[in-house]
């Protein structure tokens, strides 16, 4: 149960004054559903304004606060802007311009002859100075001068800076004092502000120590939760599994295992032989051959007389794994069953019976395999194929609940830098498939300016004419979700004009059945071109798809681009990946795309990407979706995570864990960052 003193922070957003049904959606899109979320919605940056006595003191491009007196309205004909001419104390004239609907408020805000304090950016329009859509217009100087430094928050459609800032202010004003959870020595040494102060400071202006404090808290909560779970796992009992190899010897493999595969299998085999349940992550790029490693692991369980289950994130992937595993395992005579939410009737009953009486030793499926109706005779190993890039660790740990704890193997295709592995998976054991099977064709990767769209489409047409298939990927980021969705649909419409029924569209807002149907049409070859947002990221395997076009490639994280690109180059034919980029790219963005062209080594891309962005990263330029953290950015993760990790260890090993004074403060922290699964698991076990 959440400690009572945190309750005010977890009430719904609409308990804040001014939040009605109209704001619920826009807030939700930013992840702001409870009061707590507003506290941690930190500014991207701050606008700094200078108060000037008159416009002679200001330069064009500068953000200023100045007193101006409107002298004339100049409305343009048609749909042009309203310009309010206003003069300063020295007699300089400046236009304050309002476009579109804003022109209604222009006249109201600026009555002729009455002096107002105006905050905004000074621009030039022809020969005239101009301020377009002033940020603030106030009647007295006090309010205006209070706006010299102002936060700029990430927004969503339907929200304004002012609105959001007021809500955040309200939320911050209501936070309780909480006891300190950071180790006192470290706290002093780092000169951090207390939690409540840090929240206030971080929203008020650029304040490194305050941002660090909040980031540190998030990292500490994460480290602590992972460590609690790891320790709880060590104390549990699983079933030691020792196989004699008789089934593994009969796997049908047309190839020799790579060194990395052999090593990983040995590591898993050693874990399974122990009483303590395995908690291991198998990390390997797309195509590195994780499936056969999973099969070997499952056959060890079967050789030892137990059952194994493999959890796939989607129906399609479950089927694909099922087919592949069945093919490889034919010679072993081991029965493998498929179980998904779609299976009904007699076939489903037969599978359930077989799992119950143990006659089916291996099952592959979606989360349906863990429903209450499914009973296993002797389930001793669970393999989890990745779904959410950052959910694996947590889910794997939750799978440890219950009396008999199965061994767990999680598989992820996201190569992440070593620092981040620690952040996401804590002290889980890791096996890395850092060696690709021989004979993979390099993917010809090119960066193409978006102006050459017509050529690109013609290229796709030639490609499809050869009988091969292609992917067309459009970006989808949360901040611009509706625009992005519209862009993806527009592209689909355009391509459909050209390619007709050969094109299908898949995106995250389709109903699951519609999505599956479209994917299946593509996978079976019925459709030739798949237009998609990033939902194809995980695991789709269509070897005949040998071309991928990625629009606005610069907006993707490199890990994501790498993952996407891994969808092609799976068959014998040569594959191509076209990264379409927009005109104006920063140096870093150019280097990042160049890196994609240069290498296909996921681990290298992950490390260099972290270097490229980690160093020069500014406030607010963090890329969402690249880490499991909302507050800490990459640079902070690198700098603060080792400290947080040691701090968590001290708390657990020296300072009595969650008991004692600091321990109960740390418990608050876990709930605050919703890492309370750590606490719950502790109690449950
Ligand atoms: P992952 O799941 O890691 O993306 P898969 O297990 O699907 O990769 O393997 C990708 C392809 O490589 C499959 O066609 C598989 O049969 C093949 N493969 C796996 N291991 C080897 C190997 N040691 N030598 C050659 N091919 C391999
Ligand atoms: Mg796979």
TrEMBL record:
Q: Which stretches make up the Helicase ATP-binding domain?
A: 271-433
What InterPro entries is this protein classified in? DEAD/DEAH_box_helicase_dom (IPR011545), Helicase_ATP-bd (IPR014001), Helicase_C-like (IPR001650), NA-bd_OB-fold (IPR012340), P-loop_NTPase (IPR027417), RecG/Mfd (IPR047112), RecG_dom3_C (IPR045562), RecG_wedge (IPR033454)
Transmembrane intervals:
none
> Gene3D superfamilies attached here?
P-loop containing nucleotide triphosphate hydrolases
Q: Does the keyword Amino-acid biosynthesis apply?
A: no
- The chain's coiled-coil residues are none
User: Which PROSITE patterns does the record cross-reference, listed alphabetically?
Assistant: HELICASE_ATP_BIND_1, HELICASE_CTER
Which molecular function GO terms apply here?
A: DNA helicase activity; hydrolase activity
Pfam families documented for this protein: DEAD, Helicase_C, RecG_dom3_C, RecG_wedge
Which PANTHER family did the record assign? Answer: ATP-DEPENDENT DNA HELICASE HOMOLOG RECG, CHLOROPLASTIC (PTHR47964:SF1)
Q: What is this protein called?
A: Probable DNA 3'-5' helicase RecG
- Whose protein is this, by species? Novosphingobium aquiterrae
């Amino acid at each position: 149960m959440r400690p009572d003193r945190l309750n005010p922070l977890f009430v719904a957003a609409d308990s804040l004054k001014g939040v009605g049904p109209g704001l619920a959606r826009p807030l939700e899109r930013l992840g702001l559903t409870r009061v707590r979320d507003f506290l941690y919605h930190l500014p991207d940056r701050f606008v700094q304004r200078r108060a000037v006595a008159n416009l002679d003191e200001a330069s064009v491009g500068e953000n200023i606060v100045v007193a101006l007196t409107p002298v004339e309205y100049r409305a343009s004909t048609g749909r042009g802007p309203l310009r309010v001419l206003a003069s300063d104390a020295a007699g300089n004239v400046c236009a304050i311009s309002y476009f579109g609907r804003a022109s209604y408020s222009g006249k109201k805000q600026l009555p002729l002859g009455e002096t107002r304090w105006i905050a905004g950016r000074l621009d030039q329009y022809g020969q005239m100075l101009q301020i377009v859509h002033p940020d603030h217009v106030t009647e007295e100087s006090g309010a205006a001068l209070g706006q010299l430094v102002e936060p700029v928050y990430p927004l969503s459609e339907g929200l304004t800076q002012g609105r959001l800032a007021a809500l955040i202010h309200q939320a911050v004003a209501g936070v309780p004092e909480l006891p300190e959870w950071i180790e006192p020595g470290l706290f002093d040494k780092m000169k951090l502000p207390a939690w409540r102060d840090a929240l206030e400071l971080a929203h008020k202006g650029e304040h490194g120590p305050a941002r660090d404090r909040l980031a540190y808290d998030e990292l500490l909560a994460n480290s602590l939760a992972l460590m609690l779970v790891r320790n709880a796992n060590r104390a549990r009992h699983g079933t030691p599994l020792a196989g004699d190899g008789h089934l593994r010897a009969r796997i049908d493999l047309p190839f020799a295992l790579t060194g990395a595969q052999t090593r990983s299998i040995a590591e898993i085999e050693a874990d399974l032989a122990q009483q303590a349940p395995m908690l291991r992550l198998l990390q390997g790029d797309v195509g590195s051959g994780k499936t056969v490693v999973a099969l070997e692991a499952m056959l060890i369980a079967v050789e030892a007389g137990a059952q194994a289950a493999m959890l796939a994130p989607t129906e399609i992937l479950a089927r694909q794994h099922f087919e592949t595993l069945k093919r490889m395992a034919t010679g072993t005579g081991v029965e493998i069953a498929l179980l998904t939410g779609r299976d009904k009737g007699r076939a489903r009953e037969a599978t359930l019976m077989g799992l119950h009486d143990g006659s089916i030793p291996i099952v592959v499926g979606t989360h349906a395999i863990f429903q209450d109706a499914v009973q296993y005779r002797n389930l001793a190993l669970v393999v989890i194929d990745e779904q959410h890039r950052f959910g694996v660790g947590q889910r794997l740990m939750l799978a440890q609940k219950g009396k008999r704890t199965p061994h767990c193997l999680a598989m992820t295709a996201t190569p992440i830098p070593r620092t981040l592995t620690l952040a996401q998976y804590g002290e889980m054991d890791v096996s890395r498939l850092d060696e690709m099977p021989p004979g993979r064709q390099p993917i010809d990767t090119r960066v193409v300016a978006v102006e050459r769209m017509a050529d690109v489409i013609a290229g796709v047409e030639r490609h499809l004419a050869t009988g091969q298939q292609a992917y067309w990927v459009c970006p989808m980021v949360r901040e611009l979700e509706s625009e992005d969705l519209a862009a993806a649909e527009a592209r689909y419409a355009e391509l459909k004009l050209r390619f007709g029924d050969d094109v299908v569209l898949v995106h995250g807002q389709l109903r699951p059945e519609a999505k599956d149907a479209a994917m299946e049409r593509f996978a079976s070859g019925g459709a030739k071109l798949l237009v998609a947002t990033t939902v194809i990221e995980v695991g789709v395997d269509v070897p005949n798809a040998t071309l991928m076009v990625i629009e606005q490639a610069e907006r993707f994280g490199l890990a994501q681009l790498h993952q996407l690109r891994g969808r092609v180059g799976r068959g014998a034919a040569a594959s191509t990946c076209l990264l379409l980029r927009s005109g104006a790219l920063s140096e870093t963005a150019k280097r990042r795309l160049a890196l994609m062209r240069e290498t296909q080594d996921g681990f290298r891309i992950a490390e260099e990407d972290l270097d490229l962005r980690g160093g020069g990263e500014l406030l607010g330029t963090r890329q969402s979706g690249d880490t499991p953290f909302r507050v800490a950015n990459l640079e902070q993760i690198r700098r603060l995570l080792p400290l947080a990790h040691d701090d968590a260890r001290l708390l657990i090993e020296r300072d009595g864990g969650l008991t004692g004074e600091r321990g109960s403060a740390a418990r608050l922290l876990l709930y605050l960052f919703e890492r309370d699964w750590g606490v719950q698991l502790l109690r449950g076990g």
